[in-house]
Amino acid sequence: MPVSLELWLAFIAAASIMILIPGPTTMMVLGHTMAGGPRTGALSLIGVTLGDVCAIALSMLGFSALLAASAEAFTAMKWIGAVYLVYLGIRLWRAPPMDLTPANTGKSSARDAILQTFLVTLLNPKGILFFAAFLPQFIDPTRPLWPQVAMLTVTMNVLAAGIQGCWIVMMGQARNRIASPRMLKNMNRAGGAMLVGAGMLTATLKRG
């Protein structure tokens, strides 16, 4: 086992608490669920996972040091992510309600959900700095580094998928019970508002 059992259990407890605190990524996943249903919300978790893996890799490779040292780099990433979220929110607000019949749930919406959540997760500079500060606390310096990083990364993403998956199921069930065209339009607007809110939340991030 790359990580000692004690450190691993402590990591699970700490990571679970952090995941339960809603942030821009969680709000985006819920926004996708409200607009496109549980399938779209579940697919968006793929983008979150890929984004987290890349963010952890960047933090371990030293990119976090650049963000910590350079206010300009941090601010640029923060505003790119914030503007992108607001753009997605406005586009979703204005979108027509999705047809829930199987023949009309195309591949393009799946690709969009994955790509959008991947970009938002990766463009969150606070996430890279968080992993750089958080993961080393559970790394044993006497053991090989990358096997430990790999195990903690997998653990983090399994926990995130499980916790966010529960929210997706609950919200998706509520959505499907009231799937009238008018209500779906309102769902789009609620999801769009959540994405705009996530963008505003991203814009308030600070390095320290």
From TrEMBL:
Name of the protein in question: LysE family translocator
User: Which is an annotated GO molecular function term of this record?
Assistant: amino acid transmembrane transporter activity
Residue intervals passing through the bilayer: 6-30, 42-67, 73-93, 114-139, 145-169
What topology in the membrane does the UniProt record assign? Multi-pass membrane protein
Q: Where in the cell is it found?
A: Cell membrane
- Taking the record's annotation, the residue ranges forming a coiled coil are none
Q: Which UniProt keywords apply?
A: Cell membrane, Membrane, Transmembrane, Transmembrane helix
The record lists the organism as Ferrovibrio terrae
Any Pfam family: LysE
Q: Does the keyword Nucleotidyltransferase apply?
A: no
- Source domain of life is Bacteria
Name one cellular component (GO) term: plasma membrane
